[in-house]
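ARCHIVE CARD
Drawer: 12
Card no.: 0347
Subject: one protein chain, sequence and derived structure
Cross-reference: see card 0346
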Amino acid sequence: MTLLERPAVVAPVTRVVSPTVSVERPFEVALWVAEQAALLEPSDIHWVDGSTRERHELLQLLVANGTIEQLNPDLRPYSFLARSAESDVARLESRTFICTENESDAGPTNNWREPAAMRAELTEVFRGSMRGRTMYVVPFAMGPIGSPMARFGVQLTDSPYVVVSVGTMTRMGNPALEAIARGASWVPAVHSVGAPLAAGQADVAWPCNDTKYIVQFPESREIWSFGSAYGGNAILAKKAYALRIASVMARDEGWLAEHMLLVKVTPPSGKAYHFAAAFPSACGKTNMAMMTPSLPGWKVETIGDDIAWLWIGTDGRLRAINPEAGFFGVAPGTGMRTNPTAIDSLWGNTIFTNVARTDDGDVWWEGMTDEKPARLTDWRGEPWTPTSGRPAAHPNSRFTVSARQCPSIAEDWDDPEGVVIDAIIFGGRRASNVPLVVEARDWDHGVFMGATIASEQTAAAEGTIGELRRDPFAMLPFAGYNMADYFAHWLNFGRRLRRSARVPRVFQVNWFRKDADGSFLWPGFGENARVLEWMVGRLDGQLGAIDSPIGSLPNDGALNVDGLELDGAALTELFRVDPAAFAAEADDIETFFASFGDRLPPELSRQLALLRGRLAAS
């Protein structure tokens, strides 16, 4: 289970640090650790046990190193602020590689490299990269341990910041290692900041390297990451494992690994429904996952805000778990008006990265409050005032916090058997063309919706902000194999669902449509519960819809807009389907589909032809 060539001799390390509580170290893991230590040459090896004491010691080490600073404990108990290097602030799609034996298996949406060539390149890049540093051995579980969907991994890293982040985002430590010792399969993941230290050399607060790699070998289930200490580049359990590697595992094993939030919605009737929703990063996922409904008597509870693993249960129903244990949320735009639940989750025990600091030792970011503080220290550590002419917090600044701190966390959020999914929602950020909500005709039409989602680029990844790009299923940066085959897997999964039980309904939403003056037509946030109300009504057969060329729209009076300052013209515009504009959209979809060549499932070409026919007849 090793990626790089095994060395002839295993090099010694200066010291091995044992965990607080001794557990059996699986031979396969111990051998792999020794092999990698010979290549990476760390000074020490620390087997992470996941204890509270260990976390405290790591946080104090990070404070001593200058990587983080503790915030005012009276205002934000046991919370910390990190400032990254300016070159290390977001996911790096341009440096993310999928290495498959055949280039066509990676597909046109991934950066492909030939595995043997990449292995040789990485061998030299990683050689000695941990000199002068401690190598942490981090066993972790994705999903509740004991769940049929739980999967395991071991990450090596020389960043204590990454260790504490993985500890928040996964079930990390001895219980995961014990499960591996009992025979659970595991994914090896190696991470280095790429900043070795010579004897006596002073360290920097945020060590990283201008050369960066985030490399997935999906066929052998391996991950290697170099040069970045930030987010999904370095917390390898997150996007690299839970999506890129897991999507291939899901294809091979017959389930789905998706970039989706999970919520439990309970109307006044008391009957609960579960929704899975796919939105690109920074397009309102966390806000929906933690929604405070504006409708009296309605309750929305959080199960997950970013990733969902879905499978067909023994009862034949579509079920899902949140494989993560925490939230790694975008801070800007999160405030008491937009997402009070998220704000309440951050009362303490939180690590903030690249936000601003107030003079009294708390945090602030754009959108947190309506009024800007008179004076701050910005995310670079420089003085800031409202006249500075630059954001105080980085647009992709983050908070990392345990899911258990969320006031809206559902009682069954970590049920090992998962929750039954009643409906799937796709969404993106579109200023025009796409209606507020539309229902798919059937599963295949829903897959077409997911495959053609487009969204305006945000600061969560590299690229031109505001530029429109196709982001199918919100998985463009995360599918670990050819996306045409991924579409086919979704279509085949639907056929299995049809044979076993009721197929969930599929919807598409767009909270971001604007009027001619550039103002948002829909109030969003807690008012989005009105759209969920219509969806529940559709599931129960209580609310009506009218047919349109692109799917079913709410009929007159079906969408509850009572009490909203929304005139008839705005409501009409929210649902207007312009045949000419959608014909142009169809042309763009055809161009996008053409990039997949003959691997594109014919069902999607058929759906595109049906769309054009309905537009022509409208």
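Annotation on reverse: The CA atoms of residues 321 and 327 lie 15 Å apart. The chain has 16 helices and 33 strands.
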